[in-house]
Amino acid sequence: MRRFWLAVASAEHVRRGRAEGFMQVNHGKLAPLKRLKQGDGIVYYSPSEQMGVKDGFQSFTAIGRIKEGEPYQGFMSAGFQPFRRNVEWEDGREQPIRPLLGTLDLTRDRNWGYALRSGLLELSAGDFAVIGAAMTGEKNGLWRIGVVAHP
């Protein structure tokens, strides 16, 4: 069964992963990535442009599908070796969350931001479709990321 996920990271980090075809969560921890399976949908929410900066960015920054393969360790500066998963990212624009607040199951609770602190949470198929349509501008194009059947 295909599942849909929301990951949280700064836009700067998401853009790097998108450019290089991978994702990582929770500062490179392995356990959350093990929950993801090939074909699952993934969308990133970025509360800020840069990690640790409160700038009110609050946007969805990437959407795609988990590729075949297991989590692996990447190599970064100073010996940091975060765990990653490969992702087939879709073309799409960054989408502020504000216009979607009234339509997402995710934001029904008054304190919806609290749930995002986990760094990775399951998302409803409906929310994934709404976010995907807003980011890609194609309601019918969502078959590419597994939300709807191919037309």
Describe the 3D structure.
The protein is an alpha+beta fold and 151 residues long. The protein has helices spanning 11-20, 31-34, 112-115, 125-136, and strands at 4-8, 22-23, 41-46, 59-66, 72-73, 83-89, 95-96, 120-123. It has a single domain, classed as Roll (ph1033 like fold). Helices cover 20% and strands 24% of the residues. The longest helix has 12 residues, at 125-136. The radius of gyration is 15 Å and the shape is globular.
Question: Roughly how many Å apart are the termini?
Answer: 20 Å
Largest sheet: 8 strands, mixed
- String of helices and strands: EHEHEEEEEHEH
Would you count the extended β strands for me? Answer: 8
What's the domain count?
A: 1
Mean pLDDT over the residues: 89
Q: In which range does the helix fraction lie?
A: 10-25%
Structural class: alpha+beta
| Gyration radius, in Å | 15 Å
Architecture (CATH level 2) name: Roll
Please report the first level of CATH classification, the CATH class.
Alpha Beta
In CATH, the topology is named ph1033 like fold
What is the overall number of helices? 4
Family: Belongs to the UPF0310 family.
Protein name: UPF0310 protein SAMN02927928_3436
Domain EVE: 3-131
Question: What's the layout of helices and strands?
Answer:
Blueprint: E1 4-8, H1 11-20, E2 22-23, H2 31-34, E3 41-46, E4 59-66, E5 72-73, E6 83-89, E7 95-96, H3 112-115, E8 120-123, H4 125-136
Parallel strand pairs: 1-3
Antiparallel strand pairs: 1-8, 2-6, 3-4, 4-6, 4-7, 5-6
InterPro entries: EVE_domain, PUA-like_sf, UPF0310
Family: Belongs to the UPF0310 family.
Protein name: UPF0310 protein SAMN02927928_3436
